[in-house]
Amino acid sequence: MSSTFETVANIIAETCDIPRENITPESHAIDDLGIDSLDFLDIAFAIDKAFGIKLPLESWTQEVNEGKATTEQYFVLKNLCARIDELIAAKSA
Amino acid sequence: MRLEYFQMVDKVLALDLEARTLRTANTVPDKSPIFEGHFPGHPLLPGVLLFEIMAQSCGMLLLRLHNYDRMAFLASVDKGKLRTFVTPGQVIEVFAEMVHDGSGFARLKAEGRVEGKLVCNAEVTLKTMPFPAPELRGYLLETAERIGMPMDAPAELGSSAPASAGNLTHV
Q: Which of B11, B25, B101, B112 would disulfide-bridge B120, Cβ 3.0–4.6 Å?
C-alpha cells in the first residue's frame, strides 16, 4: 500500500496543486483536501494510467448515493489505495 | 454547421472503431447573426465554438464507441490552442481520438485543420452517464444518421462501465 499511496499522493499534489506534506493516508479526498468531482476525474485519469486499471467511479458513486457505502470507504486515501491494490491484484490474477 | 442550434458536426469522414478515432468535416456557414457581432467587418468563428466543434466530434466518437447507450457532457478542456483565424465558408476537418475510456468519464484528444493547416487542438474530458431523457438518445441517433455515422458494426465495449450509474456531483 505504501508505494501505492506515494503514487496517489503525488498525483493528487500535482493535479490539484496541494502541498504534498498535507496529504496523508488518513486524508479524505473530498472533506479534508477539498477535491471536487471535476478534479477527481483528472485524478482518476492519472490513477488509471499509472496503474493500468479502471477505477469503478460510477459504481462507487452509486453506492454512496444509495446509502450502501460511505464516502470514507472510497475517498479516504488509505482506503482508496487498498481498492487500487485490489484492482491491480484482480488484473494480474 | 448550424451555429444557432449548436449543430457543429456536418459529416463523418472516417470512423475507426479499433483505433478509436473519428474524422469529421464541418463547414462554417457564410452567414450567421454571430458574425454581426464577432466581428463587424471582420467575421470570425468564435474560438469557443472551435472548442465546441472539437468537443462534439469527441462526443460523437464516444457515443459511437458505446453504441449510443450513454450520453457525454463536456467537463473540461485542457491544453486548448486556437492557432489561427477561422472565417465563414471554411471547412474544418476535426480528428478526434480516444485516449482513455474511464468509469463515468473519458479523455480524448482533438485537433482541427483547415486545408491541412492546424487551426486548433485540445484535450477534452467528457463526463458520461446514462441518457437523462429518452428523447435525447433519439435526437442523437437522428444526428448520427444526419452526419453519416457508420452504424453497421457494434463497437467492442470491453470492460465497460455498468449500465446504471450514479452522479459524481452528488459525492
A: B112
